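thread: overnight batch results

M.L. [08:02]
morning all. the overnight job finished for the chain we discussed friday. pasting input first so we're all looking at the same thing
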Amino acid sequence: MAAFGAKAKAKLPNPGASGEPEDQLRAPFEQLLADFAELASFPQTAVAAVGESSVSDLKTRPDYAVTVHKALVGFIELKAPGKGADPRKFKDPHDKSQWEKLHSLPNLIYTDGNAFSLWQDGELVNSVVTLIGDVESSGNKLQAPPGLLSLFENFFRWEPLAPRSAKELARTSARLCKLLRDEVTEQLALKSEALTSLAMDWRKLLFPEANDKTFADGYAQAVTFGLLMARAKEITLATGFEKVARELAHTSSLIGAALRLLTDNAENQATLKTSLGTLTRVLDAVHWPTISKGQPETWLYFYEDFLEVYDNTLGKLTGSYYTPPEVVGTMVRLVDEVLRSPRFGQSAGLASPTVTVADPATGTGTYVLAVLRKIAETVQADEGAGAVQQAINAAVSRLIAFEMQLGPFAVAQLRILAEIVDLTGAAPKTPARMFVTNTLGNPEDDEGWIPGILAPIAQSRRDANKIKRDEPITVVIGNPPYKEKAKGPRRLGRR
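M.L. [08:03]
and the structure it wrote out:
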């Protein structure tokens, strides 16, 4: 600590020094970090701090990313001496706004050279630790108080904790998704060339009306839920986005293609390295069997729990209102009864091979799940349990689901696949007919030639438009519109 004090004193009052005071702290602080790593019994080369040369305009990127044995463990934000290390007390608008974003990080140190604080998942660990003396004037008389070494040890030894429940996982992923959204928004405002180009492709392929804010939300949810889906399928994230996307594409082609599209560019990964690096590190610890406990309905309220933390207003802005399963079940039963009536003459109701069902705003798939269960119930009662597998596999081609957002779409895919496996004992022989699309969009608006990497997304759009144009639909089922509450684009109710 004496060496840190001497080096900092020589740097900070130097009239020939250029840059902000925190910039003058960099070299002394980097040596201090290395010294504490050694005191914490880490080999000299095990701990590395990757600093940013100039991040004054970036609120979503701390000054240092720290790795231990090449694995990301956390971040450090360096402030000017005298500013303090409790970001809750900052008065400067930039610092306050930055804290609103950085508190989503799971392991973060704030320091102004005089005081140090450790924040994990937005909570202060123990208390702020203040040095004995002053970094600007004490020189080699500067002393470390009790607790400083343990603060750094806690920081260096951080490991992502595997969430123990779906609700805990939803809240954890929501915090990191929010950070990713903020970083994308910030980079778009700075005219990041790679991200701006990607946003244009995204609009062209999926949502022509999407502005930068909508794109940032779509990007963040698509990547977050793509990684969550990968972990649900026990795909390791540390192997890199490209490999994850390719493996995911085997069973979830649209999600895999979206993940690949959004992360394929190395420049984009570098631009969003704080949020993408943290998201990958944290979600790689997810052990889905522990969370799901073999229950198909583990995902039932996942997206609602996610939105509560991620953006509690998003449901209102997109018309996303969720119907209790009991109401859904009643609606499906009533539709089944109407189909059996003399007017429609479908004696098997929803299980009839001539009945096609569409959910125009499927959300997380509750209506489709209820229809599948009703079909299984009918077939088992009429033909016996042995006929259920064939009936469900046949029904998959008669059920159509449209959804605008990739987050709930990914959840719906997982829930519906789990339900089919639960009902039949195996994955479906043909993929479920699920599409990311605006149901109210122009069905004639098909793109021309599309590069190979984008082909699955473009094909999904064309397939959805073909259904809108040409396919006879027997039943359209879903929530009614909430026109008096939903703002923005017209939107059918969800789930």
